[in-house]
Specification:
Order of helices and strands: EHEHEHEHEHEHEHEHHHHHHHH
CATH superfamily of the largest domain: NAD(P)-binding Rossmann-like Domain
Number of domains: 2
CATH architecture of the largest domain: 3-Layer(aba) Sandwich
Strand content: 5-15%
CATH topology of the largest domain: Rossmann fold
Number of strands: 8
Radius of gyration: 20 Å
Shape: globular
Largest sheet: 8 strands, mixed
Structural class: alpha/beta
Oligomer: single chain
Distance between the termini: 41 Å
Helix content: 40-55%
């Protein structure tokens, strides 16, 4: 199916008003589109509509005055030709299902959620496609802190779809002077990059929390990228994707940026907090915790060795001391850099 170029002003829906969903909705609205942003939280709806701010999830970022928020899924989706899903990975299926009957027949469905579904090990575009199978889906991923996108800092991300016209549709709708959108057909690579980098960010934060320096961080990022690529290739992704924005770009951002929730959670654990203590009182989801479980299961199913993922899983869920897990990583059998482990 070919999708026409976006009109100067078209109806868009963004489903999920966390920081990233809000930033995307704001960008689309500033591009001149009529945007409805769906939020479950009534205080978020009220804040956006009355003050043009998302005080809960993206405070201090003034939003486009034309952006309208709603807690009515049907109202958000009505006549939208572009639907962007930005709900957390563990509720995405239920969110899509709850609004599937309202999706316009010609709509393109973009998926800004990063993750791997825990029970099915499905990628996020597969989750959306299974709940709304007659629509083209596009993965929307890359190195993009929401606060910086909202502040219109130069950012580059990727739209990935097996339907080239759908990827181009999102590219044209979202691109702006400060937001450059590239396209690719490697959906698996883009989605795995977005999901797995969150686990690597937790691991990097653990190192930082232990007081370790730049050498171990560089080693972890580099070997983490090797693990991500190895699993991706085993599942049919292009290895080049992991050297691009959705792989290396997002990995470096999330492992080094002070705005990363996943890195911050790892720092807390490295400093001695339990997982429960590190998660307590948080309004936002650190996807790396959820994805540590699903990534480990996916690697087991594919028969791919991912020692950093394994070590992070042991620290988060088996109670292993971070220092002990790192010692085990360093004591692994010596091997050539490119031998697959």
């Amino acid at each position: 199916m070919m999708h026409p170029a976006p009109s100067a002003r078209m109806r868009c829906a963004v489903i999920g008003a966390g920081a990233w969903g809000t930033a995307i909705a704001d960008r689309l609205a500033r591009n001149g589109h009529a945007v409805r942003l769906w939020a479950r939280e009534e205080d978020v709806v009220a804040s956006i509509n009355s003050a043009h701010l998302n005080q809960r999830f993206l405070k201090d970022a003034p939003l486009a005055p034309t952006l309208v928020a709603t807690s009515d899924m049907g109202e958000a989706l009505q006549n939208a030709v572009l639907v962007v899903y930005a709900a957390p990975s563990h509720v995405l299926r239920a969110v899509v299902r709850s609004g599937a009957e309202f999706i316009a027949p010609s709509a393109v469905l973009a998926v800004a959620t990063k993750g791997i579904e825990r029970d099915t090990l499905a990628l996020m575009t597969d989750v959306v496609a299974s709940e709304s199978p007659t629509h083209a889906t596009v993965a929307f991923s890359g190195p993009s802190f929401a606060a910086e996108v909202a502040a219109q800092q130069p950012t580059a991300i990727v739209a990935a779809s097996s339907v080239p016209s759908a990827a181009a549709f999102l590219q044209l709708a979202a691109s702006a002077p400060a937001l450059r959108v590239y396209t690719t057909d490697d959906v698996i690579g883009v989605e795995l990059g977005g999901a797995l980098k969150n686990v690597m960010a937790v691991a990097t934060g653990i190192l930082e929390g232990l007081g370790m320096g730049f050498n171990p961080r560089a080693a972890l990022i580099t070997r983490g990228l090797a693990e991500m690529t190895r699993l991706g290739v085993a599942l049919g992704a292009h290895p080049e994707t992991f050297a691009g924005l959705a792989g290396l770009g997002d990995l470096v951002l999330t492992c080094t940026g002070s705005l990363s929730r996943n890195r911050a959670l790892g720092v807390a654990i490295g400093q001695g907090q339990t997982l429960e203590e590190a998660l307590a009182g948080k309004d936002t989801v650190a996807e790396g915790v959820l994805n540590a479980q699903s990534a480990r299961a996916l690697a087991d199913r594919a028969g791919v060795e991912m020692p950093i993922i394994e070590a992070t899983h042991r620290i988060l869920f088996d109670g292993q001391a971070p220092v002990e897990a790192i010692a085990e990583l360093m004591a692994r059998e010596l091997r050539a850099e490119r031998d697959g482990g």
